[in-house]
């Protein structure tokens, strides 16, 4: 369902001005804004000089969606997974245009529609073929293919450093998606620079076009999605090798270790109180709870959250074990058969279309109030990310619900933000979200208590097994090698001592600053020295304690690359920012080569401006993007990474104003705390 595309290229944008004559004369009237509602395939057949007959291969799908645009396959005709087509008015306008196309096709004597049952993703290259009569149309097709996995948002210009990680207020955050690009000329040179070694002549053609000249257009690649995937893999590998070569050449400086005391009185950004629901909203939630499936899922989640609710949040030693945890205990061999017999099991092969990359922004929007959540809910797919992961309880939640004293204050299809009381925000997310890889197989066993056990079969013969609770939090993760060797990576099922702050060293911030010129070997030596306090304690902490207790995390240093900048309210890592991870990635590779059990926590932070719930989710999304970049450009297994957003809770610079240095992503090697 999710198939991100670069919907607007420079060449296609320049061609939007010619929409009037041919298209309107055939009974289909569209504006540049209307065009933004549709996928590249429909955009091109509407703007083609060949006329409306270019849409004939897809007439059957167009006819179905003109009658009922909510059908599942209609997403192939629209913007990516309803990223922008989110309200009834837009859907109605899209349906009206599809009806005009359908009528125009039926009025044509040769409109047979014989290829209407062909998959749109396979048919698109036929429309992108270099038979267009103008160089601009040929370039648009070539760019659409070559960047088929790059979201439209990346073509937007980089904001000034003063821009804040916020939208004006909560309703605008949830209700108003970013404005669609409908044809403004934009300079794609910057975003294409890291790939020009692989793109070669195409980059030169783009520069020629921007100078106002008409370049010669070569044939677009043939072979459909298979060749596109191969081309992208080759481009990524070429970029990876180029970055490594640059890293080797530049690695000559020692890193800088900054140690600072944490002030007793910290500047803490305020957290807004949850909005109270009115009578109609409360009635809508009660109606939602009448569904047996939703009521059962929420009951499971509430029961799970009730376990240990009165004990210290950091003490997880006495919590009853989930069914999934008990399955990992070899002392009860009969338990496996008795429990798995009643488990809900789903299994699927992971394809390229299901994998999010660091360059892709998130398609879904975060809802901060009940009305926005209710409006978006009918447009969501029946197989959302959380449901596919087996976390049905989370996917059923609505903003405003109270689950065992946890009030849902924000939600999207990937994560849920709850207020645990007095502004204490927590984030529930799927800890397996960074594990999908093309060609792998996922098998999920979901148990009655909401816990899950997921097996990821890799193409190289290895298997990763993750046990999670009902909120998606990882409890145990292990890697099984091709020869059967088991490597335990994480294990929160073991008992952990309560945290005694009095015996811990004074809280200090340790930050190992790593630039593109830092020598990884020197960084490792300094890292070992900075971890002395953690090693001296001679005890282990649980991953939950590391995530939730700052005093524990600060026992190990931050590995801070040059600040990675993001566009305002966006979470994708732009290609030009990936080079800032060069030496950090090489350092992590060296550590993993010595010990494959290494675990790294990827932290996301924002400044103090904007709604706290929005910033918490945004910081977590950005941390996930950086984790994906590390797996794409370096040999970092995703199962060795843990993602956690902290929003505006821990400010690096004590100010409530917009501060770029507070908008950051940092990395910690937490292995000394866990083992």
Number of strands: 16
User: Level of helix content?
Assistant: 25-40%
Structural class call reads: alpha+beta
Straight-line N-to-C gap: 40 Å
Low-confidence stretches: 1-23, 80-84, 110-203, 205-222, 308-318
**Fraction in beta strands:** 5-15%
Measured on Cα atoms, how large is the radius of gyration? 26 Å
What is the 3D form? globular
Output the strand order for the largest sheet.
1-12-13-16-14-15
For the largest beta-sheet, the strand count, sense and barrel status come to: 6 strands, mixed
Number of domains: 2
Mean pLDDT: 75
Number of discrete helical segments: 28
Tell me what the structure shows.
The structure is a single chain. With 675 residues, this protein is α+β, with helices and mostly antiparallel strands. It has two domains: 10-148 and 187-218, no CATH class; 279-674, no CATH class. 36% of the residues lie in helices and 13% in strands. It is built from 28 helices and 16 strands. The strands form three sheets. Strands 1-12-13-16-14-15 form a six-stranded mixed sheet. Helix 4 packs across helix 7 (120-128), helix 5 crosses helix 6 (88-107) and helix 21 (520-530) crosses helix 26 (582-594). The radius of gyration is 26 Å and the shape is globular.
């Amino acid at each position: 369902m999710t198939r991100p595309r670069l919907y607007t290229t420079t060449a296609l944008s320049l061609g939007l001005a010619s929409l009037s004559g041919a298209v309107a004369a055939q009974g289909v009237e569209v504006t540049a804004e209307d065009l933004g509602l549709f996928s590249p395939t429909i955009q091109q057949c509407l703007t083609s000089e060949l006329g409306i007959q270019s849409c004939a291969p897809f007439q059957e799908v167009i006819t179905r969606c003109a009658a009922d645009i909510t059908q599942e396959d209609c997403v192939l005709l629209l913007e990516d997974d309803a990223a922008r087509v989110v309200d009834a008015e837009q859907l109605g306008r899209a349906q009206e245009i599809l009806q005009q196309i359908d009528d125009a096709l039926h009025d044509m004597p040769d409109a047979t529609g014989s290829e209407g049952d062909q998959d749109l993703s396979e048919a698109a290259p036929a429309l992108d073929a270099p038979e267009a009569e103008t160089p601009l149309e040929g370039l648009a097709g070539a760019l659409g293919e070559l960047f088929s996995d790059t979201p439209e948002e990346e073509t937007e210009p980089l904001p000034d450093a003063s821009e804040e990680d916020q939208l004006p207020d909560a309703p605008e955050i949830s209700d108003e998606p970013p404005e669609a690009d409908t044809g403004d000329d934009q300079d794609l040179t910057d975003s294409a620079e890291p790939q020009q070694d692989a793109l070669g002549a195409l980059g030169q053609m783009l520069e020629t076009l921007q100078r106002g000249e008409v370049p010669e257009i070569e044939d677009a690649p043939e072979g459909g999605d298979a060749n596109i995937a191969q081309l992208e893999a080759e481009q990524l590998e070429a970029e990876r090798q180029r970055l490594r070569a640059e890293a080797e050449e530049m690695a000559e400086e020692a890193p800088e270790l900054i140690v600072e005391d944490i002030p007793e009185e910290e500047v803490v950004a305020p957290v807004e109180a949850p909005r109270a629901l009115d009578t109609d909203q409360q009635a809508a939630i009660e109606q939602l709870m009448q569904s047996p499936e939703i009521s059962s899922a929420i009951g499971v989640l509430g029961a799970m959250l009730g376990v240990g609710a009165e004990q210290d949040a950091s003490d997880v030693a006495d919590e009853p074990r989930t069914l999934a945890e008990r399955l990992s205990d070899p002392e009860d061999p009969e338990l496996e058969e008795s429990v798995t017999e009643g488990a809900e099991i789903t299994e699927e092969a992971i394809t390229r279309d299901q994998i999010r990359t660091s360059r892709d922004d998130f398609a879904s929007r975060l809802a901060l109030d009940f009305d926005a959540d209710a409006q978006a809910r009918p447009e969501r797919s029946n197989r959302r990310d959380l449901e596919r992961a087996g976390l049905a309880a989370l996917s059923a939640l609505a903003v405003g619900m109270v689950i065992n004293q946890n009030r849902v204050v924000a939600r999207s299809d990937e994560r849920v933000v709850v207020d645990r009381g007095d502004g204490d925000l927590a984030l529930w997310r799927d800890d397996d979200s960074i594990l999908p890889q093309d060609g792998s197989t996922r098998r999920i066993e979901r148990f009655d208590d909401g816990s899950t056990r997921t097996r990821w079969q890799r193409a190289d013969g290895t298997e990763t097994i993750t046990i999670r609770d009902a909120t998606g939090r990882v409890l145990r993760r292990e890697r099984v090698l091709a020869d059967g060797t088991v490597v335990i990576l994480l294990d929160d099922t073991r008992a952990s001592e309560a945290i005694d702050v009095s015996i811990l060293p004074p809280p200090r911030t340790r930050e190992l600053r790593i630039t593109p010129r830092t020598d990884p070997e020197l960084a490792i030596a300094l890292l070992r020295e900075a971890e002395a306090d953690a090693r001296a304690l001679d005890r282990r902490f649980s991953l939950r304690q590391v995530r939730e207790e700052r005093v524990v995390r600060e026992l190990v240093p931050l590995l801070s690359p040059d600040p990675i900048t993001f566009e305002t309210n966006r979470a994708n890592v732009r290609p030009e920012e990936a080079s800032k991870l060069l030496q950090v990635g090489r350092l992590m590779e060296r550590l993993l080569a010595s010990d494959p059990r290494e675990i790294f926590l990827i932290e996301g932070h924002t400044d103090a401006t904007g709604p706290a719930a929005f910033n918490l989710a945004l910081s977590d999304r950005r941390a996930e993007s950086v984790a994906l970049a590390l797996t794409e450009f370096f040999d970092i297994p995703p199962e060795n990474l843990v993602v956690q957003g902290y929003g505006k809770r821990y400010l690096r610079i004590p100010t409530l104003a917009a501060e770029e240095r507070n908008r950051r992503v940092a990395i910690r090697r937490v292995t000394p705390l866990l083992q």
